[in-house]
Amino acid sequence: MRIGLIGAGAVAGYHIGATDSIVGAEVTAVCDLDESTARRAASLARDAAVFTDYRVMIDRADLDAVIVNTPHSLHLPMTVEAARAGLHVLVEKPMATSVADCDTMAAESAAAGVALAVGHIQHFLPDKVAAHELIASGEVGDVLMVRDHRSTDYRPGSRPGWFFSPEVAGGGALFNIGGHCLDRSVWFGGARAVEVSASTVRRFDSPVETDGSISLRLENGVGVSIAVLSDPPGRNDNLAIVCERGVIEADPRAGTSVQIDGHRRMVHEPGHDDIQHAFTAQLRDFIAVVGGAAPTVPLEHARHVVQLVLESYRSAATGAAVRVPEGADVIAAGVAGR
């Protein structure tokens, strides 16, 4: 598989590194508006061809697939153009900035007969995989409640400028970091969300929210509590899953542990290569999807994550809990939330 990487930003090295242990997969072209950034990434990929226009890369690079690793609002046009050119697409999360855009991406890919997958990396991180496997074993019983706390930094200047553009990023800390939390919390909760209550805060004179909290009620009755805090005293990335017979905690820095009746044990010890392992597993999954396998992360789930971010913004704006729309109402709500 000859892969073109569109966007050579923060996680480009992980995407390229994923091909090192996958026979037959290679990043053969890299595109970024900043040519020097593209060249640095290309040097990690055995001197892949360098482009500064993704359309030119799609037209000239003789590719089988692309990885879209760009600002959120660009996911739609880049995915659609790649699909129409007959290329399979792995697009970074969030899938898009509206539910309608998600539907367009899925429809265009299906019409072109190409595979589309969304890079929700949480499903491949070893600490989360270990927690999910423990729940699947039945040892701790059913999931009853999920609590997800994450820190981030949304001070202006702390990250590239596009993150602070509502039009380009779709929102702030909740769209970016909160998207990870919504993804994994709903995944562990085991059902779609039917009700959302949220609040947001803007600090540092930021044009987008810097902090926020989200409460979800899932269809199966599981309650979810999410908090995203910007620039707190300590870094935090802790997912706690309350089950019938024990509590699991998963943290990429601390590993995965479980406490059952007063006794704690480690389920996964953190490793220095856990993140690269996750990106490699994600690429393997994408290649399997190209071959006809079902994706680890269904498109419906990726779409639901976008929907929940938008519904969180609606709840924060109205100061009230909101019902998560279904069916035809979903597209209308997505467009209105842009």
From TrEMBL:
SUPFAM superfamilies: Glyceraldehyde-3-phosphate dehydrogenase-like, C-terminal domain, NAD(P)-binding Rossmann-fold domains
Molecular function as annotated in GO: nucleotide binding; oxidoreductase activity
Domain (GFO/IDH/MocA-like oxidoreductase): residue spans on this chain: 130-249
Keyword tags: NAD, Oxidoreductase
Pfam family, one: GFO_IDH_MocA_C3
PANTHER family (alphabetical): BCDNA.GH03377
Name under which the protein is recorded: Predicted dehydrogenase
